[in-house]
């Protein structure tokens, strides 16, 4: 298939994802039954994001213009994809970029998320049977030419050793942060809430830590979150995590702030427990910059309304809406695939 044919097929997929079909309902139901964190609402949110951000014709055409050599004929390579399963369809961008680059995906799905992406691939192969040669599901990776693997810091150590002889992209744990200056409006704080709570805070783009000025007042934020996100406590797993973590903090006399759905505690780590968000004070912009520089390899994205000249930032509320060129860990996947 030529590049324009692949792009046209992806646009059709974008329209299909927004149709209330039996196939979509089944994939979503299987996903939630298999992993209770991947709820119907969250799967629908993810599919809508794919349709509007990744599979939009204007977005796709603008994206590929940055890579003129994509139009060139190339010998297809077999790309091993080790996908994560922390949020619905989280590995779809890797599958999409491999297809756009004209290579074959050898997909090793996470046991936690193994239905949404096959539902999408099934549409592609039925709509244009020629696309079937671009996708393969495998139980283990072998006979591949390059690898893109996503996992934890522990699994990344294994990946780096196992895949060291092949061109690779190995992704480790990263977390996202928000930087506040105290002038945020109620609208800004509600947008921040979406960055924190979307997908139960399980994504690498979920805000897990706040940087705030000294003497920052958390009361408005906690009050708004209590109003708008308390319903998360109806989810058994989230509720259990909240109760367990709150108990641990109380038993160990860990200072923290809390409402009925979220806990805030002062901590240097960018990785926080489910239902918790860390925070750290900064004295001034220079102090903030020093803190961000020291953790830049652990940060996926930064949400803020502030002007931070040395950082790539997103508006509050946009952390969970990546564009096609918002590459995980800042590594250009398309450039990697073109260079093989």
Automatic annotation (TrEMBL):
The keyword Chaperone belongs to this UniProt entry's keyword annotation: no
InterPro entries: Ald_DH/histidinol_DH (IPR016161), CoA_reduct_LuxC (IPR008670)
Keywords: Coiled coil, NADP
Keyword Coiled coil: yes
Gene Ontology biological process terms in this record: bioluminescence
Gene Ontology MF annotations: acyl-CoA dehydrogenase activity
Coiled-coil annotated residue ranges, if any: 278-305
Pfam families, sorted: LuxC
Name of the protein in question: Acyl-CoA reductase
Lineage: Bacteria, Pseudomonadati, Bacteroidota, Saprospiria, Saprospirales
